[in-house]
# Entry
Amino acid sequence: MRPEKARKEKPKVSAFTSAKIGRILELAEQIDAYAQTLSDRVERIRAARAARHNRPRVYFEEWGDPMITGIGWVSELTGIAGGEDIFPEKAAEPASREGK
# Structure
């Protein structure tokens, strides 16, 4: 659950993540092709970064009070981009929140 302050100040967009937008707009084929293009791009980035020897260490903080860090998808994108999440164990926790 998001902190009360975050709920008031940040819009919630997760309702769109499970919607079948392509189907709703009758653009399923175009959406699928675009999704494949993006997936291919992510894989090219992952392969290019894997060859690098220097991996910057990355800290991501979503919210300061309470402290929220170690978000799973951010950790995943950090790795894809060639970085190293400094708290990888937090990304696996269901609530990466201070005191939890």
